[in-house]
Amino acid sequence: MMCRNLLFLLAMPAAAVPSFDIHLETAPELRWAEVTKYYMKDILAMGETFNRTLHNKFTVEELKEWADVLSNGVPKEFLDEFRGMEKIVNSPLWTADHILLFNHLYELESPTMCSGLLAAQEDGTVIHGRNMDYSFLYKMPDGSTHDWPDVTYDVNFWREGKKIITMVGWPLLVGAHTAMRYDGWTFEQNTRTTNNHSLNLEAGKQGASPFSMNIRHLLQTIPDFTTALAKIASTNWMAPQYFIMAGAGKFEGAVLTIDRAPEHLATTPPIQRINASKGLWHVLQTNDDVNKLSLDPRRPLTEILLATKDQREVNENFVWDMIRAPTLFNPLTAFTWVATPATGYHETIVHSESPPQHVMLLEGSSTVQGSIKMSDQSRQLFKWPLARYRMLQGIDA
């Protein structure tokens, strides 16, 4: 007899992004061969746009200075990966230094929006949802225009026959902006609006660290949330930003607001945490400090929406609903990612894809009913942040 308390979802799965495997025992120069060859046409097309953007913004001397500083802040293992990709691509558009710079777009002050949500179930399981709001338009040889959704993929890192990390990637970009250590912790990086490439470079000269490659190193070497959080919080970082993390342990979830080293500003928010004893079962981070007025409507409107919800509703489908709600999902969302370190669940969809329906849910709980289309009112809400983003990115409105 079918249990009436359960609703079984016969789900239509989202079209999966490509997936690749990296074995860390492989020589660093060879690790990314499959991915690089798979995306070769896009890589060459991206190189034209990236080089043009670099030389419009920086002089040759400034780029050399940046490369020198960044190479001192990246573990040698990853510099060897860059050299390996350089050999495979074999184009003056993509020297090892170009790839190094490409992996540090954030420190070079390439603007993004982005949003992250942590939500805890009643049993303490924390689920992490993330929108990557970012555009990088480039022309393909056939005249078509590609962007990040065309080249988004998942990659799993293996060590000694065991899968240890999953990460969302783009061609030649091999640092961590969206990742999970299996049975350990998740990581997301968001833009903070005080980002400034000149100040970042000066901080780098004083020994501060760029984030993406160093976070990947921590993912490869630190298995648990508590140790990772402590290490990340104590590191001097080159750029101001937000780090969003969930853990495999009960109620492990935190958002760190990072100042540019050596600053530790009195007005910077303290670490925000999931806190069961205080009834704090969710944490939301967009692109402004939570102790200040919001710079756009996403955070206040989503907080209003969350205030109508109950912790008993929380599961992966609930997080898909929230992160793809019209208050967060927007025309610049390149991909959306949801992950649960306690269970190993993770899924990535690009902008045009529908959220997956994957969980057997209690009757009456939140379900995802396909892609959320933006209403005209919702698009108006994003008019100001999108205009600002396009101005900074040099995208025609």
Enumerate the strands of the largest sheet in spatial order, edge to edge or round the barrel.
2-7-8-9-10-11-12-13
Q: What percentage of residues falls in helices of 4 or more residues?
A: 25-40%
Helical segment tally? 12
Rg measurement, Å: 20 Å
Q: How would you describe the shape?
A: globular
Q: What oligomeric assembly is this protein in? A: single chain
Backbone structural class: alpha+beta
Q: What fraction of residues sit in β-strands?
A: 15-25%
Question: What's the mean pLDDT score?
Answer: 89
Unreliable spans are: 1-14, 359-380, 386-397
Q: What does the main sheet amount to?
A: 8 strands, mixed
Series of H and E elements = EEHHHHHEEEEEEEEHHHEEEEHHEEEHH
Considering the chains and any ligands shown, give keywords for the structure.
397 residues, alpha+beta, 8-stranded mixed sheet, 5-stranded antiparallel sheet, 12 helices
Structural features, described:
The termini are far apart. Helix 3 (60-72) packs across helix 5 (96-102) and helix 4 packs across helix 5 (96-102). Helices cover 31% and strands 21% of the residues. By secondary structure, it is α+β, with helices and mostly antiparallel strands. The radius of gyration is 20 Å and the shape is globular. The strands form 4 sheets. Strands 2-7-8-9-10-11-12-13 form an 8-stranded mixed β-sheet, covered by helices on one side. It has a 5-stranded antiparallel β-sheet with strand order 14-3-4-15-16, covered by helices on one side. It has helices spanning 33-38, 40-57, 60-72, 76-89, 96-102, 197-205, 212-221, 225-234, 298-307, 316-323, 376-381, 383-393, and strands at 6-7, 19-23, 115-120, 126-133, 138-139, 145-146, 153-159, 162-169, 178-181, 185-191, 241-246, 253-258, 272-273, 282-285, 333-340, 345-350, 361-362.
